Amino acid sequence: MDNPTEPILNANEYYVTHIKQTALYCILLVPLLIPLISHKLHLRKNPRPKGCRKLGLPPNKSNLHDEYHPKYSQPVPETDTDTPSWRIKALFAYPIKSCTGIELDVADIVPTGFTYDRQFCFAEYITPKTNANSQQPHWTVRTLRDGDLCRLALIKPEIWVPDPTAPDYSPSLDEVQSHGVMVIHYPRVPQSLICKISLALGLLPKHQSFSVPFLPKTTHSYPSAPLKVWKDFPPSYNYAIHLPPSLHHFLDPHSTRGPLSLFRANPSHPRQIFRNAPRKPDLGFQPVTGFADAYPIHLLSLSSVQHVAAKCRPEIPHLSIRRFRANMIIQGPGPFEEDGWKRIRVSDVDMYTACRTIRCRLPNVDPDTGVRHPSQPDRTLKAYRRIDRGDLTNAALGMQVVPALRECRIRVGDRIQVLETGEHCYIKMLKPGEVVEGV
C-alpha cells in the first residue's frame, strides 16, 4: 500500500525548492538592479535645466545631411539672386575644445567668436620631472592632438540657454543667472562584471552626464589659475568640483596622466590676437579669442574638403568635413578658391580672412568613433597642400576669420561675397627674436 504522506512530502519539497530558486534569482538580480535604481535617482538629482531650452538643431536634423553629394565639388557662379549660390551651408560651435560640436541655424558672434564656441577645455596638471627643468608646475590644455586622448571626440556637450517663455522660468534661477547650463554626456565605461552585464541587458544607459554653469555667478568660488594655451597663460576658472570620477576613468583609464580638469575661459581675460589679424586701428577694437587655437572663427569650403576626400577615398571612404572642426562651412566656390580671400561679406557683416588654416593631425580622428587613422588625411594634405610660404612644412586648408564687428549674427543660407583678394603669408607663433622670412 502506498504511503499516504508521500504526496505531502513531495509537495513540500517542491515548494522548498521553488523558494530556494526564487531567492537565488533575487540575490542575482539585486546587484543588477542597484545600478538601474542609482541611475533613476541620478536623473532625479539632475533634471532638465529649469527655465532653459536646448540650443542647436535636433539630433535627427543636419544641414550636412548631403555633404557627400558630388554637386558640392563643382564651382557655381557668384550671382546676384534672391537665393545666393555662394552661401553658408552649415554652422557649428564647439563649447568644449576638441569635443563634439553643436550644429546651429543661427550663430551670435561676440569678440571671441561664436558665443558658445571654445569657452571650455580640458587640461592636465603638469609637474616637471626634474628640478633642472626651468618649467614650473602648471595646467596645460589637452586636445585631440594628444595621442591617447582621442576619446575627447566622444564627449558631447549640450548648451541650455535661458528661455523666458519656459513655464518654470524665473530671473532668480541659478540656471538663468549663470547665462545657461552646459550638460556634458560621455560614454559609460564598465568597471565591474555587474556593470558590463547591466549594460548588455539594457539595464544601464550607455552614457553618463553631469552639468556645469555656462558662466560662474557673481558669487562663485571657482579657483582661478593660469592655463597654458600655446604660448599664452590666460587666467581661467577651474571647474574641477563638477567632474565625476567616472569621467576621469573614461579619459584616462590607465591613470597615466597627471590630474585632469575642466576649465572655463574668463571673459575678463580673453587672449589678444596679433600675428595675421587686422590691427586695432583698422577695426576700432583689439581682436581676441577664448580657447580657440588662434583666431575667432574658422571658415571651410565644402568643395575644398571634397577635393581632399577624393584623394583619401581608398583609405577613408567617407571623409566628413566635421573632422576639420570649422565654425562656418560654405558652399558655392570652387575647390581652394578661398585661399586668396582677404576680406569677405557674410550677409551684411564684413569679415577679414586673416590667414590660411595650417593643419595638424587632429583631423585624423574620426569624430563619430574617436579612432585615429594612422596617416590620413594628414598624409594626403601634406602631399599637395603645403602652399603657404609662412609654413611650408605643414598643409593649409580653410581660412581663419576675424569679424569687423564686435557683435553680430549670421545664419545658414547667408550670402558670401568676396570684397578683396590678395597674397597670404602665415605668421607662426614666434619665439623671442624669431622672424618669418618674407614678412
From TrEMBL:
<dbReference type="Pfam" id="PF03473">
    <property type="entry name" value="MOSC"/>
</dbReference>
<dbReference type="GO" id="GO:0030151">
    <property type="term" value="F:molybdenum ion binding"/>
</dbReference>
<dbReference type="Pfam" id="PF03476">
    <property type="entry name" value="MOSC_N"/>
</dbReference>
<feature type="domain" description="MOSC">
    <location>
        <begin position="260"/>
        <end position="419"/>
    </location>
</feature>
<feature type="region of interest" description="Disordered">
    <location>
        <begin position="61"/>
        <end position="81"/>
    </location>
</feature>
<protein>
    <submittedName>
        <fullName>MOSC-domain-containing protein</fullName>
    </submittedName>
</protein>
<dbReference type="InterPro" id="IPR005302">
    <property type="entry name" value="MoCF_Sase_C"/>
</dbReference>
<dbReference type="GO" id="GO:0030170">
    <property type="term" value="F:pyridoxal phosphate binding"/>
</dbReference>
<dbReference type="GO" id="GO:0003824">
    <property type="term" value="F:catalytic activity"/>
</dbReference>
<dbReference type="InterPro" id="IPR005303">
    <property type="entry name" value="MOCOS_middle"/>
</dbReference>
<dbReference type="InterPro" id="IPR011037">
    <property type="entry name" value="Pyrv_Knase-like_insert_dom_sf"/>
</dbReference>
